[in-house]
Amino acid sequence: MRIVAGKYGSRPLKTLSGDATRPTSDKVKGAVFSSLGGRFAGGRFLDCYSGSGAMALEAISRGMDQAVCVDQSHAACRIIQENIRTLGVQDQCLVLQQDIFRAIDQLTQPFDLVYIDPPYSKQKNEELISKLDRMHLIKEQGILVVESADGDHLPDAINDIYKYKEKKYRNTKITYYRKGE
Fold this sequence. Notes:
Blueprint: H1 26-35, E1 44-48, H2 54-61, E2 66-70, H3 74-87, E3 93-96, H4 100-103, E4 111-116, H5 125-134, E5 138-149, E6 157-158, E7 161-169, E8 172-179
Parallel strand pairs: 1-2, 1-4, 2-3, 4-5
Antiparallel strand pairs: 5-8, 6-7, 7-8
């Protein structure tokens, strides 16, 4: 596992051993960030179900100002903190060890980009997107990226959030949403 591009490109990241998390492959991570183009000139990134923090740290490496990493696992949060220290970006990152639904109750500033990658068996993607929208945690024209199993179906719209693209990578589906039309 590594940072794919940007200021910290090629820097290695630690992950939890075993199958406690399912890290996004470097290939999928690179494809997701490439498809988002130049959306990284500043802004805030929310990494739901953060695991190793790889997606948030990739966003920081590519130019985002701040990232919030949320994971309920103590071991995962330890790894995230270690990766943050290794890159020296402590002043740009916040780690919350909580269930994502409880964590977002504490957040007050909206995000430009949200990455949602829950354990496939515990997905509540529609409910989470709806709550983020109701709590005004997504900026107008903000992007949400949902990583799910290939066979999962996500709706075309959730509140004021609209699907605009979907890509498949083997058994992984990446769905892109935008707030507003």
